[in-house]
Amino acid sequence: MARYNCLLMDVDGTLLDFAETERVAFEKTVGHFDIAFTPLMLEQYRTVNQKLWELFEQGKIKKETLVLQRWKDFFQTAQLEGDPAAWNLYYFEELTRSSTAYPGAAETLEELAEVATIAFITNGVDKIQRARLAAAGIAEYADEIFVSEKMGCAKPNRKFFDQALRRLGVSNRQKVLVAGDSLQADIKGGSAAGLDTCWVNFDEKENTTSVRPVYTVQGYEELKMIVYGEDGPPDVKTNQNQH
Fold it and tell me: Which pTM was predicted?
């Protein structure tokens, strides 16, 4: 019997390689508006975008405001002129075309789906996220896809996780694992909801926050062993203790 039979899995940075998708989409967007791309521009955009997403996770800004404000802030920082709405629309279109899953993501989901209910949880834009998951070939592995704008709240608000479990019909929280790359959105939110958490730390970043996940993994194999528990996968035994 698996240690966890319900997985709430983040999307970007956990299953989808958003950093690469973002880079490609941003570079194509800049080129579309006849501006010569530079790596500095991408760095400037990421800086202002990250700050706004942090405000969104804190409930201090709405998503419809965020997606336009980031371009306004970027234009100001990079000393450019442009129409935020036009840039955002083109950027969204490119995001859906450039979606890539991490190597091993699909195989991991297919394997874990044999022992657990899987739901994807994301603060992204509903239409964009669903299109990207489909394009990456992993949407089929989710029993449900929970997107903040459709939930009426966002990670790390515990209401997001409570609603997700209620819609999944899950009552035993001890058998639920939240897995994601964001300490502030996924791990903090999952912990607040009384759930075990797994920090998916592919880049082996240092945790300088007060947020403490139950588990930390650098790869999907470690994640699978955590889900399986002491008995290991159905056909393989393991003596590893990941807790």
Answer: 0.87
pLDDT digits (tens, 9 = 90+) for 84-135: 999 999 999 999 887 889 999 999 999 999 999 999 999 988 999 999 999 9
Local structure of 6: helix, strand or coil: strand
What 8-state DSSP symbol labels residue 90? Answer: H
pLDDT tens track for 197-229:
999 999 999 999 999 999 999 999 999 999 999
First to last CA, the chain: 16
- Provide the edge-to-edge strand list for the sheet that holds 117-122: 144-147, 117-122, 6-10, 176-180, 196-200, 215-217
- pLDDT band at residue 243, thresholds of 50, 70 and 90? very low
Supply 26's token pair.
Answer: 């941003």
Catalytic residues: 10
| Length reported for the chain | 243
Q: Which residue do the tokens 């297919």 mark?
A: 110
* Tokens linked to 25: 């989409």
Print the SS3 string covering the chain: CCCCCEEEEECECCCECHHHHHHHHHHHHHHHCCCCCCHHHHHHHHHHHHHHHHHHHCCCCCHHHHHHHHHHHHHHHHCCCCCHHHHHHHHHHHHHHCCCECCCHHHHHHHHCCCCEEEEEECCCHHHHHHHHHHCCCHHHCCEEEEHHHHCCCCCCHHHHHHHHHHHCCCCHHHEEEEECCHHHHHHHHHHCCCEEEEECCCCCCCCCCCCCCEEECCHHHHHHHHHCCCCCCCCCCCCCCC
